[in-house]
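Assess this:
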Amino acid sequence: MAANFWNSSHCKQLLEAEEVDVVHALDRERGISLDDFKLIKFHMSNHITKLAQHIKVRQRVVATAITYMRRVFVRKSMVEFEPRLVALTCLYLASKAEESIVQARNLVFYIKRLYPDEYKYELKDILGMEMKVLEALNYYLVVFHPYRSLSQFLQDAAINDVNMIQITWGICNDTYKMDLILVHPPYRIALACIYIASVHREKDITAWFENLDEDMNLVSQRL
């Protein structure tokens, strides 16, 4: 993995929001609108999260899997890459990338229990899609998440309010229901989560924010 975010493949792959919100031509031909496109990715993120809870993997694996899925659909159409199979495969791939390996057969077992009417895929389907997903990702598997920055910022700001800390981490996890990880540096997402939580808890940490070398107008508009 790259020594830091700024030297990483993740940094080099950051996109403008307008580049992410693009429906592939093949999908448009099938009648998939931009709202449909966003909604499908939202549901696939939820499927990954729910499945991960049953197979008991770390949140970081979930976040990496969702990031992979969202990266895939920047480049590939949902007509060519069936979203449910992509979501399943991305979780399998993320478990290996994050060294928390899950057997593909276990994914098949649990996904059929959770969504018996939606998922008819077998082990061979996941293994076959794995190479296609890797190619779609250009074999770039490095993902930097906001979690490390968030932990450091909370400590630096001397935030001891347990409820605010829990809210902040919850907001951070919820950011993966959107494409923010494809557009913004992880540290900025972490700052935005703290900002929102501070507003929610009516906690004034303005002085701490002012000491940061960061444009708070950018931060406050991220989520």
User: Anything to note?
Assistant: Residues 95 and 101 are 5 Å apart (CA to CA). The chain has a mean pLDDT of 92.
